[in-house]
Every structure is written in C-alpha cells, then in structure tokens.
Amino acid sequence: MYNSLKTTITTLSALLLCTMAVSAQTSTNSIIADVDGNGRISRSEAENMMNSPSLKTELFNASIEDQGRFYNALENNIRVRLIKLARAYDTPRWSMAIEMCERSGLSATDAERIALAIRANMPSKPGSQKKQPSSDGTPVIADLDGNGRISRSEAENMMNSPSLKTELFNASIEDQGRFYNALENNIRVRLLKLAKAYGTPRWSLAIEMCERNGLSAADAERIAIAMQKK
C-alpha cells in the first residue's frame, strides 16, 4: 500500500509540473484578444476587441512583438483588409478608407492607430535593407543598456527625466536624429505621426492623445519640431 501511495503521489507531482509548464508556456505566448486560446483571432474575437476599451488599450500599447503576434493570428480575410488599410494611410485613398471603416463601425481614430500599428509590423519590401543601429561607437541619448536601440522603457525613462529631456532638446540635429532613429519602430511611427500633425488642424487632437498618455503639450510640441528638423 505504501508503494501504491508513493506511486500515486509521484504521478500527481509529475502531472502538476506538466500542467504548470503548459500554463506558463500558454501565458508567455498568449495572444491579445484570443478569448478561446486557439492561437487564431476570429471575426467575433476581433469585433469584441474593438468594442473593449481595455483590450484596445492593451493592443495599441503592446510591444511590436505582441502586436505582430495579434495581427498574424487574425483570420486571413481580416488581415488582408487591415493590410489594405495600412497601405492606404497617408495616401489620397485614406479618406475613402476612413469612410468605409466608419460605415463598418470603426472610428477614424482607431482606424488610424490600427493602420500605424500594421505598418510597424509589415515586412520590408524585397531587396530593401532594414535600418541597423549606429555602429560608429557614438553613444545615443537615453540608451541605458548601450545596445544602440531605445526601448519603450528607455523612452519612458527619458520623458520622466528632466535632465535627459533637456539633453535631447538641446542636442545637435545629428544627435537628435541618432536618438529618433534608434527608437523602437512602433514608437518612431507614432512620433512621425505627431510631427506630421504639427501645424495642421489635427494638432489639437494629437495633443489630447499625448496628454492622455502622460506627455505634456509642451514636450509634444518640442518633439514634433525636433522630428521635423531631423
């Protein structure tokens, strides 16, 4: 009986370890809005995400890897439509694309954010080379780990550091350009959008969005001006 009990305990322990391992793997590789956990985003799950402010915030603030995981998990017909939306962005077709989105219940703001996120995750065209970090040994402002890239946490740290902000805004055009080119792609795309909005009727809306994310109007303006100069 002792041996039987020992065998049972050993078996249960093994099952528990397997369950924990599977759970950990599922958690690590979980996809935003994938309610049933099957690794695919169905039409109903995509609609649920767009009607959920918390899920939308999670997606738009996610890392480029997590955003890519979400868009790659979409059903093919949905993904194709979003790729078309992204390609229409900043072209004469954009106004028509927005009209079609609004007819389908997708706001212009969300459509623009999705288009920017998709563009950040789209593969490079054949034959094009991806930008590499500067390798000339020149340090990049706010690059704490010295890897030549500015991560989301490093960018947030910079915006919360008066000394680093002063260093960036007073830096040469070359040093500012080095900083902006080192930003993670999804951050750089958002700042380019901010710069394009500066001096246009869209600026007030851009400022509202910046302030919601903790970026002051003054800092947003200085960033937009710096981005236009680089």
Name a few traits of the molecule.
single chain, 230 residues, mainly alpha, globular
Descriptive account of the structure:
The protein is mainly alpha-helical and 230 residues long. The chain has 13 helices and no strands. The protein has helices at residues 2-28, 43-50, 53-60, 64-73, 76-88, 94-103, 108-121, 152-159, 162-169, 173-182, 185-197, 203-212, 217-229. Helix 4 (64-73) crosses helix 7 (108-121).
Give a brief rundown of this model:
The chain is built from 13 helices and no strands. With 230 residues, it is an all-alpha fold.
> Which word captures the global form?
globular
Helical residue percent band:
55-70%
Counted beta strands: 0
Strand content: under 5%
Major β-sheet profile:
none
Distance between the termini: 78 Å
Question: Which class do the helix and strand fractions yield?
Answer: mainly alpha
> Which residue ranges are poorly predicted, with pLDDT under 50 across at least 5 consecutive positions?
4-28, 125-135
Query: What would the average pLDDT be, to the nearest integer?
Result: 76
Question: What is the helix tally?
Answer: 13
Q: What is the N-to-C succession of helices and strands?
A: HHHHHHHHHHHHH
Taking Cα atoms only, what radius of gyration do you get, to the nearest Å?
A: 22 Å
